[in-house]
Amino acid sequence: MTEKTNLISEMNNRSREVFRRVVEGYLESGDPVGSRTLTRSMSEQVSAATIRNVMQDLEYLGLLDSPHISAGRIPTQLGLRLFVDGLLEVGTVTDEVRNTIDGSLGKESGDVTSMLDRVGSTLSGLTHGASLVLAPKQEAPVKHVEFVSLAPDRALVILVFEDGHVENRIFTPPPGQTASSLREATNFLNSLAAGRTLADLRSVVEVEIKKNRRDLDSLAAELIRSGDAFWESEGSRYERLIVRGRANLLEGSTETEELERIRSLFDDLERKRDIAEYLELTEEGDGVRVFIGSENKLFSLSGSSLVVSPYMNADRKIIGAVGVIGPTRLNYGRIVPIVDYTAQLVGRVLSSKS
């Protein structure tokens, strides 16, 4: 961070203005910015040749790139990083946007997952990108558990919590399951579930299976173990990743290579179970983080950017995150405050619910 800041301070006023205007022009239009365009917007009257010389110097520093011969310049990933860290002018959230976000949370005290789903859809609509919401794990006591067979290799577990929240999760059961073993597994878990959270239930299940080994069918025992591992992976603090607005990233993308990169990104989002690691969430505090291109290993192949902010509970512990995914030429100045406001609001609402 210090080296980047020094790089800005070492620029003279003209170089800094040329750099800023090239980046802002690119973020607005997506097109390279030429020297003749800049002569009409610079604060001092300078020739196109002078501006071209400045651009060449910035290109030598690795901050700008020329995609085609005789074309204008676009910022590199390093240039975008420098701009975001040192020159970005962050706007304010308008009353209209605040009201839209506030309205997405709803007045009812019901399902948290539904509320976060609405928040994701709203974020996507406001930013014209794809939204990402990392939901907190469910900590209410379990009221009822039920296994339902969907196919020989697919089963559904229905989890009903004391606070009225319902989760349906599909998983792959051990082979050979029967209607009888599903019923037995359901009855066994419900005999233990009352008053226990998922984490508590997991801690007692294995002990109880050993105690009741003679009375519990082996198929039912296998099903419980596999189901339990699916509900609450050890060390996981997060429940579910909600992604909305995928189509926004595909709009205007015509090149096959670009479409494949975007599909690769969403495939990665589907497969990564511990997505928090890839969002680089820590317990060190809140605040918006901006990852550009390959800076985040989740996005290294997709050429995308992520603006993300953790949200906290009443104990100031990070329990989830909200963010926006888009091309590297996101409108960072507008999106950063929107993501920040949404994360703080979600944290306050969930704290009040708990």
UniProtKB/TrEMBL annotation:
Domain Heat-inducible transcription repressor HrcA C-terminal: 115-336
Pfam families, per the entry: HrcA
Keyword list, A-Z: Repressor, Stress response, Transcription, Transcription regulation
Domain of life per record: Bacteria
PANTHER family linked: HEAT-INDUCIBLE TRANSCRIPTION REPRESSOR HRCA
Alphabetical list of HAMAP family matching this protein: HrcA (MF_00081)
Family, similarity comment: Belongs to the HrcA family.
Annotated function: Negative regulator of class I heat shock genes (grpE-dnaK-dnaJ and groELS operons). Prevents heat-shock induction of these operons.
Name of this chain's protein: Heat-inducible transcription repressor HrcA
Species of provenance: Celeribacter arenosi
Taxonomic classification: Bacteria, Pseudomonadati, Pseudomonadota, Alphaproteobacteria, Rhodobacterales
